[in-house]
Design a protein that fits this description.
mainly alpha; 5 helices
Length: 89
C-alpha cells in the first residue's frame, strides 16, 4: 500500500500532517512546546509518555494542543523541557 505524502512518517513516527498540526497549534501551551522539542530532536512520543507516566494518546493530544496536561503534570513537563533544551546546548 502506498502511503500518501501528507502521511509520510519521519524516523520517530511523526507524520508530516502531525508535524504541521503541531506547528500551527498554540505555542503557549506547554504540551505543544514539548511536542515541538520532541519532533525537532526525533524523540518518540512513546518514550516521552512513558517517562512522564501517561499514555501515548494523552501525549499526542498535548503535542497538538487538543488537550491540556493536568496541572500536577505541568511541573514534570517543564522539567523535561528544561532537560531537553539543556542537552541541545
Amino acid at each position: 500500500m502506498r502511503v500518501p505524502p501528507s502521511h509520510t512518517m519521519n524516523n520517530t513516527g511523526y507524520s508530516r500532517k502531525f508535524i504541521q498540526a503541531n506547528k500551527t497549534a498554540d505555542q503557549k501551551h506547554i504540551g505543544v512546546q514539548l511536542g515541538r522539542i520532541c519532533i525537532d530532536r526525533d524523540i518518540p512520543v512513546q518514550d516521552v509518555a512513558e517517562y512522564i507516566g501517561v499514555s501515548r494518546q494523552a501525549a499526542y493530544m498535548w503535542f497538538l494542543g487538543k488537550s491540556l496536561p493536568h496541572p500536577k503534570m505541568r511541573e514534570t513537563i517543564a522539567e523535561v523541557i528544561k532537560t531537553l533544551k539543556a542537552k541541545s546546548n
